[in-house]
Structure formats: C-alpha cells, structure tokens
User: Fold this.
Amino acid sequence: MAFFGLTSLGPQNTFQHAARSDDRSYLHLFSVTDFKLAYDQLLEERRTAAADDDDDDDGDETTSRRVVVGMRRSDVPQLLEIVYRGPAPVRDTARVTAALLSGLTATTTSGAAGHSCDDDDVEIQWSRVETELSALLTRSRHAAQMSSSSSKTTYSSYDDYRDASHRHVRIDKNPRDLLRSPLTSGQEFGWKVDEFRKEDFGWGKKSCPETRYANDVVKSGIIL
Assistant:
C-alpha cells in the first residue's frame, strides 16, 4: 500500500523482501491448480497476441496463422509472475525453468516432436508442465518440512497455547528465534540491536549556554 503514504503495512512484495535475507524457495506455498490457472491465463494472452499479429499480416498470403498450443521457455517469468501476483524470486524462476527444460519432449508450433528444448520456439504443453511441476512441488514441500525443525515450534497443542494465554505466560522464544526476517514493518524496529546507534534515538535537547547561565544566576541567589 504505497499510495497515500500507507507504508506501515509492510513491504509491497513479501517474497522479494524475504529473498533478500535468505535463499529459501517458496514454491511449496502453491499448488498445481495455481499453476494451471496461471498457465491458462498465459495461453489466453499469447493467443490474443497471436491473433492480433495475424490480423496485421492479413495482406501477406505467404504468412500462415499461428496456433498457440503451449508455453515457451521464455514465458516462465511471466507464468510465475501470475502465480506470485508480482515478480517472483529469482531462485524460484531458475528452479521452474530448469525443471521444464530437464528431459522435456516438447511440441513445436507445427506439431513436430523431438526438438531441442533450448529453442525458444518450442512450446510446452500443460501435460508435460503438470508432470514436471508436480515433482518439483513435491520436492519443495519435502524440503520445507525438513527445514522447519521441531525446535521452532512454540506450542505442541492448542491446549498448551490456551493455558499459556490465560496464565499470561511469555513464550521462551523471541521472534528472531522463530523467523529469519521481520514479517512486518513494526518488527523491523529492534530486530537487530547491534545495528542501532546512539544518534538514532531522539535524545532530549540539551540546554543552551544562555539557559545554563540563567540557571546559575538563579542558584547563586543574585536574582530572587
């Protein structure tokens, strides 16, 4: 919420903000259905663009109409941008690109198979994208479960959480022990204590020489 000065609600893109402080992947937060919806939207945009190009080339009889049957290698950043609803982390973009190019049997616009996946004209159909993404998402979820160790768990059950809330028992873990980076702008203050300097705080204004002189005169008893 950058408009109207509403900057206290946190960073504009939480994925990009978190990517600056760690190298984790966030693919496990999405499902194959999310990518399917993004894939259909991407194909619809490509077909619309292809139809507009064909309308411009109607005067050229040697130009055949293009039939869009899949996404291209260069469409991966746009696909992830639709899924993430904004720019995706570079790490996730590289992982999806590598997964789609690894052992793919792609189909070209003319329907011929067996072309090199390094060719950007090769179109990848959803059946192959679904297979590769399902395996990649499964590996991402497994890695996320392994990285989130039990030591980061605050409560083991809802009953423990409820009892601690009623008794006003403070948890024995600080936010820095549970999170790798601040989730809100309010948590950024005091997140790293060693980064604060004395001049960062609003210390009270010191008395000017004239004020100190007047105080000394009053203390001396000259002016009652």
